[in-house]
Design brief:
- The protein has about 170 residues and is an all-alpha fold.
- The protein has two domains: about 70 residues; about 90 residues, no CATH class.
- The chain is built from six helices and no strands.
- Helix 5 packs across helix 6.
- The N and C termini lie far apart (about 60 Å).
């Protein structure tokens, strides 16, 4: 069985997860926390490892035949085709860069809600139902994560200059 590009990427991601998991054993213990400092990184890395294993298994199931190129993509070449093929990723990275740049001013709560809403809207469309759904998802997910960190884990996320809660 020959490995395709997705299989190689999945293997590299699994190796990176292994290195990061090993690094969690070097996290020093703090005396002020109620849970160990290594718990949250290990939890996230375990989830990422499961996702990478699923990615690897799916890559092995794929047929090795390449899908035929569409007519429009055969006329594009080089950098233009690369940007067109990866437009969604560039949108996500660009929105995240704006989120990080505005974090000191907007804070995690407002900035996070705006980031999720804008990203969903840019990727999912501008219709009225979609905008309402995107707003609900943004408010619910970011609000939930903010509440978990603030009240459950007692970790205060950046407030920003616009809204001071505590």
């Amino acid at each position: 069985m020959r490995l395709n590009r997705d299989s190689i990427v999945a293997i590299l991601l699994l190796l990176m997860c292994g290195v990061f998991i090993a690094a969690t054993f070097t996290i020093r213990e703090t005396s002020y926390g109620t849970i160990g400092s290594e718990l949250w990184p290990r939890f996230i890395l375990a989830a990422l490892t499961v996702i990478c294993v699923i990615y690897f298994v799916n890559s092995l199931r794929q047929s090795h035949a390449l899908a035929p190129a569409s007519e429009g993509s055969s006329q594009r070449s080089g950098l233009i085709r690369f940007f067109h093929d990866h437009l969604n990723a560039f949108i996500c990275f660009g929105a995240f860069a704006v989120f990080v740049a505005t974090l000191p001013y907007l804070g995690m709560l407002i900035g996070g809600v705006l980031f999720v809403f804008i990203t969903l809207t840019l990727l999912g469309g501008w219709d009225r139902k979609g905008l309402i759904r995107h707003a609900a998802i943004a408010l619910a997910t970011v609000g939930f994560m903010w509440a978990v960190f603030t009240f459950g884990l007692h970790v205060f996320l950046p407030e920003g200059e616009l809204l001071r809660i505590f």
